[in-house]
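so my prof wants the structure for this chain in the tokens format not the other one, which i didnt know existed until like an hour ago. anyway here's the sequence
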Amino acid sequence: MHRTRHSVEVAAPAAVVYTLLADALRRPLFCPPVLHVERLDFDGPRERLRSWESARGDIRSSISARVQHPHERRIEFFQLKHDAPVETMGGEWTVEEAPGGRSVVTVRHEFTVVGDRPHDVARVGLVTDDNARAELESLRRVTESDLALDDLVLSFEESVRVNGPGELVYDFLYRAADWPGHVPHVPRLELTESTPGVQVLDYDVLLPDGVVRTASSVRLCFPHAGRIVHKQTVPAAPTAAAHIGEWSVVPDEHGVRVITRHSVLLDENAVRGLPAGVGQARLGLREDIRRMSLATIELAGRHAESAVRTLPRRPARAGNPLP
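here's what i got, hopefully its the right format
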């Protein structure tokens, strides 16, 4: 059994820090290595989660059980399914009160590695250390912000109805490598899909103010559910510290509804210096993301609708009624 322990002192009340840690579904927004989290089931303080994380250039997924102990400000976790060479992985988060309204956050890991080979042990240890430090630092930065969390986080969704097959809408969204030349705000895009359904994108974005910025994203594709979730590991917006979202293609009796959802964590240092203030920065960022998302959805809709063809009706003949 190999053990690690990492701590950070935070200038924020323990209750505030614990509340942020307990919200597993928002971890991708506040923790750089975490790409996406889905809750499989929950029963009071117990929950099962599927998570995708970056691990020193690799993308790994795991299924974990978590048990929350809010009165102790403690969260236990244990991986039920994981990628080799990890054999077992578990641990706990604790948040302790410190003098002056501060708190100490600690994460402990215990793990075993198949065969206990030194190289594999060292790699698992390095990934565990990297991700623990990154999450603790992000947690400290967010909870110590002068801005309220509601001001730092921007979440919204938009939708468009499409009179066409959902499969073709999803096909357009999935084939992002074909977007340059079709999607005006994406002049360049390079896509790698080493594992089916896991896409790594490096691309340029033409922002509404005419500036071109380079961004990177990881997308997880679920074709049977008509969903693509994404996280910008290098955000396109200069005022964003993190950006996660989802495309959903939802069939109904009239065609499909295409929904795009976004959650953005603002970069406090970037918005603080803007003359228009945080409120205007939020409005401007929302409008920019909304405009680009709707443009992409509308193109996906036209792609689906233009592929729908109605067979011409044959002329009626005597004794041969139209079908």
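also thought this was worth mentioning. The chain has seven helices and 14 strands.
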